[in-house]
Amino acid sequence: MAKKSVVLGVCGGIAAYKALDVVSRLVKQNIEVDVIMTNSATKFVTPLSFQSLSANEVVVDMFNEPKYWEIQHISLAKKADLMVIVPATANVIGKVANGIADDMLSTTIMATKAPVIFAPAMNTNMYENPIVQNNIEKLKSFGYDFIEPCSGRLACGDTGRGKLEDTEVITECILSRLNENKDLKGKKVLVTAGPTIAKLDPVRFITNRSTGKMGYAIAEEARDRGANVVLVSGPTSLKKPYGVNIINVNTNEEMLNVVLENFHDSDIVIKSAAVADYKPKNYSNKKIKKGEGDLNIVFERDSDILKTLGDNKSNQILVGFAAESNDLLENAKEKLKRKNLDYIVANDITSNDTGFATDDNKVTIIGEDKSIVSLEKMCKKSVARELFNIINNKKR
Ligand code: CTP
Prior knowledge:
The chain is an alpha/beta fold. It has two domains: 5-178, 3-Layer(aba) Sandwich (Rossmann fold); 188-395, CoaB-like (Rossmann fold), CATH 3.40.50. It has 14 helices and 22 strands. The longest helix is centred in the N-terminal third of the chain and has 14 residues, at 66-79. The chain is elongated, with a radius of gyration of 25 Å. The model has no long low-confidence stretch (mean pLDDT 93). The chain binds cytidine-5'-triphosphate (CTP). Residues 271, 273, 275, 277, 302, 304-306, 320-323, 335 line the site of cytidine-5'-triphosphate. Residues 4-176 form the Flavoprotein domain. Pathway: Cofactor biosynthesis; coenzyme A biosynthesis; CoA from (R)-pantothenate: step 3/5; Cofactor biosynthesis; coenzyme A biosynthesis; CoA from (R)-pantothenate: step 2/5. This is Coenzyme A biosynthesis bifunctional protein CoaBC. Pfam families: DFP (PF04127), Flavoprotein (PF02441). One of its GO terms (biological process) is pantothenate catabolic process.
């Protein structure tokens, strides 16, 4: 498959160095990156750095070389599947909004038919200046996209909005835009991820080893395919995915409530969370003090959220996970039936390089129609892709 092409415009701002990380991340995803720098950008970072990372010649404004000017701004404009400006200064935003094309970058932006995304970064007062805001609104009305800057401490020492969005988020946004498969457009996908906790006293709780990586990958894949995604997440250390409606919960009960609120209008529900089956029978309002001898804690059963959904489902496609240490397929099939699921994703948690806390997973996807697909070991995002391929291929 031909590589996707991103033309990355870099403007003169202190955040220019962060664009290096975006290039590096895109190249790792097998994306062809061509960088255009403004003259001011080269005062902050050298073209050589971008050239080394992208393995492509970097184009800088070269008024003294009009031959290249003519050729390159058109060829890159045509080559681009997507153009992204990181960081976008007030200057470039103002120029494009007002039809000024006086350097390589603004000319290429003007000449391309590819989607263009601006990721602004500048001083807060500049960003909030009504002229800049007006220009942004104008560009949005013409279909240009923006990755809004965040708030934080800026290079000038001020604190406020104007900080370049995290490079990981910018990369995610780019990858999502490049994904042409939008077969989940118009669908609501509800995903649960991570562990839940069962509280013992104000300082202690019981939980499990789930990191949420599988569920987050599912949510991101659904988002990339155009779905409206609600991600109900137990406590994890993962970054909030871009473009996903995330609801954070702690306990089984909290997860149950949020899931039930979102269940009726969901099209696909994927429960990858590792939900605690038991909770301490008695929660102690005060910290439990140590005493002589053993401590016995009595646990009582908590809700089986997935089974509750299975018992109440109408048209939703319901997918569960089965993390097993033995008799993988038998146990998974039994859960599929007992919880009235459409699919179950079975994974063997005894392997060290797949399952909990790893980037890869090796799963078997079993359907209620008795279909069985055993996947090779692959990254969790690819598992998510295969899962949606299977769900979407099934005629209902
Ligand atoms: N699940 C759930 N609520 C629970 C326990 C599990 O919704 N209280 C869901 C999980 O999100 C997963 C599926 O049920 O999609 C299977 O989870 P798993 O822990 O493998 O199975 P259990 O039903 O808890 O059975 P067991 O612990 O006996 O293996």
